[in-house]
C-alpha cells in the first residue's frame, strides 16, 4: 500500500474497505474520477489490508503496523494462558471421566385439603361425610410420604456429591502419579465405598416407600368406587349428589397423583439401582488402579451403557401400532376385565423364558382399547388402556427389565371386548 500514499493517508477510505471485507464481499465503490486500472490496483491493496488487519502476524513483526495505521485499533490484554511462563498442554495425560449426575425426580406431590361441606341430615349425607373424612386421612398419608420422599432425595443427592468428590480426589492423584498401594488412596477408597453403601440404603428406603404408596393406591381406588356407588343409595337430596360429585372429583385427582408418585418412584428406583451397580464396577477397577498406582478409567463392564437408549417411560405413547395390524401373535395378552387382575406371575414367566432364548430381546407393549361405542367412550377406554399399559411397564421395570428395552404404543380393535395389553417380542 506504500505505492498509493493518497489512500494510505485517507482513514475513511481504509475503514470502508475493511468493513466491506468483514461482510464477506471484497468490493469497493470508487469515485468516477478513478480509472478502471487504478481501481483494480486499489481493490487488491484493500483486500490485502483487510486480511492483514483481521489475522495476526506470524512473522514476528508488530501486528499493529506502523504508527500511521494504529489510530483505529484496540489493544487486547493477554489471556491467562499467554501470561504463563511454560506451556500447559500434555498429550500423555489421561482425561478424567466426568461423573454422571443422578437424575432423580423433582415433583412435589402435595395436595390441598379436602373441600368441606355442611351436613344434610340424611343417611346419604352421613355416608358422604364418612368418605370425606377417609379421603382427608388418605391425603394426610400421601403428604407424609411425600415429605419422606423429598428427604430421601435430598439425602441421596448429598451422598452422591460426597461419593463423587472422593472418587475425583482419587482419580486426580492417580493421574498425577503415585506409589502402588498408597495408604491415603486406600483410605479414600474405603470412604467412597461407604458413601456408595449409603446410596444403596437410599434405594432400600425408596422401595419401602413404594410399598407404602401402593397400599395408599389401593385405598384411593376403594374410595373412588365407594363414592360412585353412593349415587345409587336411596333417600338422597340434591345437595347430597352435589357433594358426592365434588368428592368424586377430588378422589379421582388423588388417584392420579398417587399413580404419578408410583411411576416416578419406580423410575427413580430403577435408575438408581443401575447407577449404583455401575459404580460398584467402577470402584472395583479403581481399587486395581490404586494397587498398581496407575489410572485406568471407567470399568469395561459399563461401556455398554454409554450408548443406552432413552427410557421408554419418558417417551409419549404413540397412536397405532404395526404389531396388531400385521396380525402377529403376542407373547402375552392381559385382559383388564376386572379390578386387580393377577397377571404378574404369568408375565414374569413368559418374559423370563423369552429372555432365556433371546438374551438381547426387546419388547413392544401395546395398549388395546375396544373400538365400540360413541367417540367419547372410545376415548375413555383408550385412556384407561394407556394407564393399564403404564402399570404393566412399571411391573416389568420392577422385575428388573431395563425400560430402554420396552416400546410403548396404543391402538383400538373391533375384536376386543375389554381393555387389553399385548406384549410382543421386537
H-E order: HHHHHHHEHEHEHEE
- Largest sheet, spatial ordering of strands: 1-4-3-5-2
Main β-sheet description:
5 strands, mixed
- Number of separate structural domains: 3
Total number of β-strand segments? Answer: 5
* Helical segment count: 10
Assembly annotation: single chain
Describe the structure in your own words:
It is a single chain. This protein has a five-stranded mixed sheet with strand order 1-4-3-5-2. 56% of the residues lie in helices and 7% in strands. Mean pLDDT is 74; it is low at 1-64, 66-71, 84-101 and 302-321. The protein is built from ten helices and five strands; from the N terminus they run H-H-H-H-H-H-H-E-H-E-H-E-H-E-E. It is flat.
